[in-house]
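Q: Could you fold this chain for me?
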Amino acid sequence: MSNRRKPPSSESWPAPGQLPSLRKRPNQSRSRALVDAVAQACLQILDEAGDEGLTVARIAEVSGAAVGSIYQYFPSKDAIVAMLYERVLDEESEQLLLVREDVVRMPLAAALREILANIIRVELRLFKLNQSFHLRHHAALHLGMWRGPYQTANEFIEATWLPLLKMRAHEISTPHPELAAYMLGQGLRGVMRSVLQDIPQQFESPAFLDSLVAMALGCLRPQEPGDGQEDA
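A: Sure. Below is the predicted structure, expressed as structure tokens.
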């Protein structure tokens, strides 16, 4: 997939909310075929021309669907792109369950590395699909909360990260596990978004994963002032 373009600045973008949605869901085989054709055309155009070349008119041309038929289901171009993201997140949600099962048996550092490596992989997949859309709707593209029962980020953290830390209480030393859980669940995610926006070429580097793991362990095993320093 093409990744030639520099990600656009998001300084003027509003805070993202829910993903744009379809006007209506296709129920009949003919309408489902139309929606699938639109999705495939959207993927092809993004791969060949990027977001700049993606228009409803071009999607209609590549898919063979009439513009009016497309608008029966999609209120905007973003709603079409959102459908692609929904499909990816549904697929990755299944993989996430396997990751969560595996990390239960790992030591803390290894578990953090596995979790963070998977988040990086998914974030990169979403980013390459459509860079501007990914940055604009990053808050809604939260794999851990996708299709989950959580209404807020705090609910998600309390149901996932905090129990993980409690299970590993013998491996951590922080007196503030709730804060540490928040930093792992939201703080590192914010770091990832910033790297994607500012220095995306570093996102796949081993050094970035190493840095995230070190930051996570620093939250869980904070040093006392003066630790590791030689006496004057």
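A (continued): The two ends are 56 Å apart (CA to CA).
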